[in-house]
Specification:
CATH architecture of the largest domain: 3-Layer(aba) Sandwich
CATH superfamily of the largest domain: Glycogen Phosphorylase B
Order of helices and strands: EHEEEHEHEHHHEHEEHEHEHEHEHEEHHH
Radius of gyration: 23 Å
Structural class: alpha/beta
Largest sheet: 8 strands, mixed
Number of strands: 15
Number of domains: 2
CATH class of the largest domain: Alpha Beta
CATH topology of the largest domain: Rossmann fold
Shape: globular
Strand content: 15-25%
Number of helices: 15
Length: about 425
């Protein structure tokens, strides 16, 4: 079987999709019966086609054409876009075995022209993994419109989705032979909003390799200027309003006011728009450590030396941050929103915070404060919650199992092609 994974650099490459690509690529390339190609498109770094044969997969960089290019995301300049997609098709054709149908795996929704080109010219099987939904990013900084779109989704029997449907995402779903969704909520969204048949969609959650735990994480704290008796809270991810940071910081502010004489630190690991949060929460300056984007080894150490993890995103699919927190045995306070509420059992593997959608969305800082206080006051419960979360993560987010599920999707598509080819020849 030949597998071509289409990739290009975006903000998402730093976070969810980037993690998915790196972990999945390494795991699927270890399968001897899969010949893997990583195809970097819209490459602005190289002026010439570049091919590099690695030990387990082949990487291809296809440069942008010399003609004026608008954007990978633009609906303008279709002629140039189509010519570039034909160029990609010509390049990939060199590597395809005769009388076979390659699998082409897309992780972005902006490639319907390329997907249809590869289906037509190369007889490719198209797999589209839905890591994010365009309506979410369209409204992530417009809370009122976000809430309006959420109401559309929640309204029983609604068939008009003026806030939610995205034309390019629709075209990508139509072009795909199989659509992988990371959560039940997204599965329902794709089926309902884009009118995709259920047999074309499959839910496969993210998976990660099980990490090695430090024997005594408290020993890691001096490296980061933290004392053993400090109560450490951790956020990891993009610094943005849509991550629920206003609600989180207000809850933390209330918690610190409840215990004014205790040593408390809030670690913020990730990049983004720091300025509004730094200016709006001056009372927390002595308690917050803005760590920025960290190397993987250091982030893993923060997971282990912290006491509580907090992830209050308003929309997720299958959060890698949540998986990592659970795998490291960190008790998690999470938003009971799409995606995250599927990953935790409230009170058993995490503590959920209710999300209210009205003219705007909101979470109770009082409830956030109560959850932090409970975990602070009851170390035994804190430890047990983290242990149960870790056990759940090792079962539900096993990388080998999730890769095997995805490979099965590829194999079924290949079998369908072989059956069509057999009947055609017969």
């Amino acid at each position: 079987m030949q597998l071509f994974i289409i990739d290009f650099n975006t903000r998402a490459s730093i976070y969810g999709i980037g993690t998915y690509r790196k972990t999945f690529l390494k795991a699927i390339s270890a399968h001897d019966d899969v010949e893997v190609f990583l195809v970097n498109v819209f490459d602005a770094a190289n002026k010439l086609l570049k091919i590099q044969v690695n030990e387990q997969y082949t990487e291809i960089w296809i440069p942008l054409p010399e003609t004026t290019w608008i954007s990978a995301f633009s609906d303008k300049n279709h002629a140039n876009k189509r010519k570039y997609c034909q160029r990609i098709s010509d390049v990939l054709h060199r590597f395809i075995h005769p009388y076979t149908s390659p699998v082409v795996h897309f992780n972005h929704s902006n490639f319907s022209i390329l997907a249809n080109e590869l289906k037509t010219r190369l007889q490719a099987n198209i797999v589209f993994a839905v890591h994010s939904l365009n309506w979410y990013f369209q409204y992530e900084n417009e809370p009122a419109k976000f809430a309006a779109s959420w109401k559309e989704l929640e309204e029983p029997g609604n068939t008009i989705f003026k806030h939610c449907a995205d034309p390019e995402e629709q075209r990508m779903c139509d072009a795909a032979d199989k659509i992988i969704c990371l959560s039940e909520r997204t599965y329902g969204f794709v089926q309902r909003v884009y009118q995709i048949d259920a047999d074309k969609i499959i839910k496969i959650q993210n998976g990660l390799q099980v990490p090695v735990l430090h024997s005594d994480p408290i020993q890691l704290r001096p490296r980061y200027g933290l004392s053993p008796d400090t109560f450490v809270l951790l956020f990891a991810g993009r610094i943005a309003k849509s991550k629920g940071l206003d609600f989180m910081l207000k809850g933390v502010e209330r918690f610190i006011a409840t215990y004014p004489d205790r040593k408390i630190k809030m670690l913020m690991a990730g990049n983004g728009d720091y300025d509004p949060f730094m200016s709006n929460y001056k009372s927390l300056w002595q308690h917050i450590i803005w760590a920025g984007v960290l190397p993987r080894e250091e982030l893993n150490e923060l997971y282990q030396l912290s006491d509580v993890g907090i992830t209050l995103s308003l929309f997720e699919q299958c959060s890698y941050t949540a998986i990592e927190m659970m795998q490291f045995g960190l008790p998690v306070i999470y938003a009971k929103c799409s995606g995250l509420d599927e990953m935790f059992e409230d009170g058993t593997t995490g503590l959920g915070v209710t999300v209210e959608y009205g003219e705007d969305f909101r979470m109770s800082e009082e409830q956030i404060c109560q959850h932090i206080s409970l975990l602070y006051e009851q170390p035994a419960f804190r430890k047990a919650l983290g242990a149960r979360g870790r056990s759940a993560a090792l079962i539900n987010y096993n990388l080998s199992a999730r890769v095997a599920d995805t490979k099965q999707v590829y194999q079924v598509l290949n079998e369908h092609y072989e059956n069509r080819l057999y009947h055609t020849c017969a």
